[in-house]
Amino acid sequence: MISAMQGRENRDKFANARERMLRWDLKGRDITDPRVLTVMAEIPREQFIPRSHRSQAYSDGPLPIGNGQTISQPYIVALMTQELRVNRSCDVLEIGTGSGYQTAVLSKLAQRVFTIERFSELAESAQAVLDGLGLTNVEFCVGDGSCGWPEHRLPLAGCFDRVIITAAVPAVPEPVAGQLADGGLIVAPVGAGGVQELIVCQKKAGRFSERGICDVRFVKLVGEYGLSQ
Ligand code: SAH
Asked: If you measure from the C-alpha of residue 163 to the centroid of ligand 1, how many angstroms do you get, rounded to a whole number?
């Protein structure tokens, strides 16, 4: 009886917190894409947060997820998703699965998501949460995403319509740029220091054009075409 009541209270607490996040941290700023707002209203962000920090699941800041990594703040997830302009015909490559929250947001908007993570513990726990939510259009991979998605596992088209990098890179890694379809977009935090610039990069007729969005702080993409530890 007591636990049933506690369960109800917990659900209500998160529902209110989710509503506040949407109103103040997303709509209250510059998140206007209704599809992004809808999926972020649907996804239980608390399930992606370790128990120790779950009560802060809807605060607009990064939180620790283990292995020295963090889940991005809701506003940044929303902003990157909005800038990526994903639709139901897109195959999306995500580099840096982390908690899997951004993966879940993308999976509800895209045709398929291909996500790669350096730490197997994070990839496994993200996969368990997505499975629990019934999000099945996601392929997981453990490896160095700075080298792109493994060639032998590429989708039929051989490339991706969208790429999102959720860790800091000194520049868009060349193998990753090579796996972007013509007309495709990359959203990534670019910079070698503690602060990076969030950029949107478009590939047209084999050439890249770039637009800066804002300053951000991400953990490093550690890898061959990324940064060192
Ligand atoms: N979108 C995630 C962000 C996680 S932080 C979330 O909101 O939860 C960035 C993630 O990138 C970390 O989990 C980190 O381990 C991972 N990462 C760092 N270098 C990587 C690499 N070379 N390849 C794949 N993942 C990497």
From this structure: 14
Domains of the chain: which residue ranges? Answer: 60-216
CATH architecture label of 60-216: 3-Layer(aba) Sandwich (3.40)
- Nearest CA residue ID for atom 7, ligand 1: 71
Give pLDDT tens digits for 8-63.
Answer: 555 567 999 999 999 999 999 999 999 999 999 999 999 999 999 999 999 999 99
| Residue pointed to by tokens 């730490």 | 119
Indicate which residue of 52, 72, 146, 209 is catalytic: 72
Give pLDDT tens digits for 110-144: 999 999 999 999 999 999 999 999 999 999 999 99
Residue corresponding to tokens 């197997």: 120
Q: Is 125 a catalytic residue?
A: no
Cβ of 225 less than 6 Å from ligand 1: no
Residue 188 forms beta bridges with which residues? 199
In this prediction the pTM is 0.95
Angstrom CA distances, 162 to 1, 143, 177, 185, 205, stand at: 48, 19, 10, 5, 16
Ligand 1 in reach of 168 Cβ (< 6 A)? no
Residue ID of nearest Cα to ligand 1 atom 2: 98
